[in-house]
């Protein structure tokens, strides 16, 4: 591929066997942010200027931004592969957390309570989180890929924000009721769901200039601009 030339608009099928310089790094960033936002961010409720929120909301939306970048630059099939990698990684993280927390602490070790507080995960919330991530990311990628074809590649901001509106919407509609309905009052579930959805979409808007820079860089360096015109959009595959 010519890494100095303008990106060539190609159909996703034309690059099935292609090799990319930066795809592995983008995929690693996607999985790392997904895991860290669930492990570190999910364990703390923060309060800034009187506004209380789960700390994970600061970083989890970045996974959707990276998902947008993957779909925009590399196409739906490769983004789908990354989503499945993230899905399996989150499941393994949940399993590992459960096993490590359940292990009997050694005599004299006083960190068990703190460990359980941070890493002890309620199965219901784990299930809600995994299901919401899986569905939301696939909706996000699908909407962006279809909007790119419909718009003939114009107005990147419209499809990154538009796909996030739908993707984060599905994510929130699944996660909050599944995780908290019956535990919190229904009005509180609805309020937190809508508020956090709006904040996540707002993050996408704020990060739009950075998205333009990253997408432009990757397209130039990789030498392609992928359009999913005849792609099989089934989520139940990891094939490229």
Q: What would you say about this model in short?
A:
With 240 residues, the chain is mainly alpha-helical. It contains 8 helices and 4 strands. A hairpin with a 2-residue loop joins strand 2 (45-48) and strand 3.
Task: Pick out its properties.
Arp2/3 complex 21 kDa subunit ARPC3, single chain, 240 residues, two-stranded antiparallel ribbon, mainly alpha, globular, two-stranded parallel ribbon
Ordered list of secondary-structure elements with their pairings:
Elements: E1 8-11, H1 23-39, E2 45-48, E3 51-54, H2 60-74, H3 76-102, H4 112-119, H5 123-150, H6 156-180, H7 186-206, H8 208-222, E4 224-227
Helix pairs in contact: 1-2, 1-3, 2-3, 2-5, 2-6, 2-7, 2-8, 3-5, 5-6, 6-7
Summarize the structure in words.
- Helices cover 65% and strands 7% of the residues.
- It has eight helices and four strands, in the order E-H-E-E-H-H-H-H-H-H-H-E.
- It has helices spanning 23-39, 60-74, 76-102, 112-119, 123-150, 156-180, 186-206, 208-222; strands at 8-11, 45-48, 51-54, 224-227.
- The strands form two sheets. The chain has a two-stranded parallel ribbon. It has a two-stranded antiparallel sheet with strand order 2-3.
- Helix 2 (60-74) packs antiparallel against helix 3 (76-102), helix 2 (60-74) runs parallel beside helix 5 and helix 2 runs parallel beside helix 8.
- The longest helix has 28 residues, at 123-150.
């Amino acid at each position: 591929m010519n890494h100095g030339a303008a990106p060539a608009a190609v159909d996703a099928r034309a690059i099935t066997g292609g090799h990319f310089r930066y795809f592995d790094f983008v995929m690693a960033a996607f999985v790392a942010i997904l895991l860290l936002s669930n492990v570190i961010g999910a364990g703390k409720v923060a309060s800034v200027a009187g506004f209380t929120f789960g700390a994970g909301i600061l970083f989890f939306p970045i996974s959707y931004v990276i998902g947008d970048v993957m779909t925009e630059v590399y196409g739906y099939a490769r983004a789908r592969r990354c989503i499945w990698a993230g899905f399996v990684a989150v499941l393994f993280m949940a399993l590992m957390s459960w096993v490590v927390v359940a292990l009997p602490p050694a005599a004299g070790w006083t960190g068990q309570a703190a460990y359980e507080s941070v890493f002890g995960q309620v199965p219901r919330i784990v299930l809600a989180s995994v299901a919401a991530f899986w569905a939301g990311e696939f909706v996000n990628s699908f909407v962006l890929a279809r909007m790119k074809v419909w718009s003939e590649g114009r107005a990147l901001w419209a499809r990154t924000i538009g796909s996030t509106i739908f993707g984060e919407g599905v994510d929130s509609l699944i996660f909050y009721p599944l995780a908290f309905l019956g535990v919190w009052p229904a009005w509180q579930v609805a309020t937190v769901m809508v508020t956090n959805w709006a904040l996540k979409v707002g993050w996408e808007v704020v990060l739009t200039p950075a998205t333009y820079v990253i997408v432009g860089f990757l397209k130039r360096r990789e030498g392609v601009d992928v359009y999913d015109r005849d792609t099989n959009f089934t989520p139940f595959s990891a094939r490229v």
